[in-house]
Q: What sequence folds into this?
């Protein structure tokens, strides 16, 4: 069968289409068409004067746009699709969509996690789809950095924050100094603490929610040095002990202030200075000794210098 069509109100050339039982025409826009002639296989022509012009409607193919992916704090969100056609609807699982046929609609999630929402855009019988991802986060209620700490001239410690119920935590230095072994671990080890007062903050984060934080103070107390010792061999107070934890090197200089006798000694990883003897092994006489102690502590760049005196007594 041969068919010849005329596009009404158009200067386009006529369409000549040949087919058997089903004839297909292609149009790129809506047109009014009329038949010029229809001829069958027997070369007989149909009377086309009785056939009114037909309107061939061409629909645009929809381009679905479900909107941008989102992270929200809480269980509520508003979906915002951008429709390109005359209709559309949402498909989802595990959540409540208030108006499924509206491109802009509130949704309520059942639990804190990620959800995928499918927007189906339609023009006539043409469909297109797009997916939007929404992650719902729970708001952390509080953070607990743990109790304040006071160290006796120590420069290393363990933090003791409460682990976060939701999200993750992180340690930061607010004032002073310090090096966290793992700044996301609630009970991490810290070294390189500054002498005297330090402040550390424990902050709990969870996605799009507002972070919550808590702080603790960590004070390194001044070194308390003894004012006397009795190196008489009775096992009690025989040595001048300097309690500096994690000392890498200690150096002490004694002087009577009158007689120029000195006792100089360097000790590695020990916190004490001899039993009141000079280098050759002779006992130091009783009396008041002035000293200068220089101490290098592990993980600290600067050394500490202490100047004071001590009484040496014997039985």
A:
């Amino acid at each position: 069968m041969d068919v010849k069509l005329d596009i009404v109100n158009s200067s386009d050339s006529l369409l000549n289409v040949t087919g058997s039982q089903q004839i297909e025409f292609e149009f790129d826009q809506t047109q009014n068409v009329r038949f010029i002639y229809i001829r069958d296989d027997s070369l007989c022509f149909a009377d086309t004067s009785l056939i009114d012009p037909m309107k061939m409607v061409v629909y645009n193919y929809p381009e679905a746009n479900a909107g941008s992916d989102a992270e929200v704090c809480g269980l509520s969100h508003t979906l915002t699709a951008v429709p390109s056609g005359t209709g559309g609807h949402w498909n989802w699982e595990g959540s409540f969509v208030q108006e499924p046929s509206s491109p802009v609609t509130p949704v309520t999630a059942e639990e804190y996690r990620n959800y995928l929402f499918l927007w189906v855009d339609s023009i006539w019988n043409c469909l297109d789809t797009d997916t939007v991802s929404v992650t719902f986060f729970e708001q952390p209620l509080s953070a607990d950095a743990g109790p304040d700490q006071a160290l006796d001239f120590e420069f290393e410690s363990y933090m003791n924050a409460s682990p976060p119920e939701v999200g993750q935590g992180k340690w930061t230095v607010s004032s002073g100094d310090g090096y966290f072994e793992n700044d996301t671990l609630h009970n991490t080890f810290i070294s390189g603490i500054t002498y005297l007062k330090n402040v550390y903050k424990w902050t709990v984060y969870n996605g799009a929610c507002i972070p919550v934080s808590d702080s603790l103070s960590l004070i390194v107390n001044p070194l308390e040095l003894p004012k006397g010792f009795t190196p008489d061999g009775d096992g009690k107070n025989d040595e001048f002990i300097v309690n500096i934890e994690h000392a890498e090197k200690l150096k002490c200089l004694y002087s009577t202030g009158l007689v120029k006798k000195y006792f100089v000694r360097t000790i590695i990883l020990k916190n004490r200075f001899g039993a009141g003897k000079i280098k050759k092994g002779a006992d130091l006489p009783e009396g008041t000794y002035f000293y200068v102690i220089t101490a290098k502590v592990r993980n600290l760049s600067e050394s500490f210098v202490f100047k004071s005196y001590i009484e040496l007594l014997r039985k």
About this structure: The radius of gyration is 44 Å. The first strand starts at residue 2 and ends at 7.
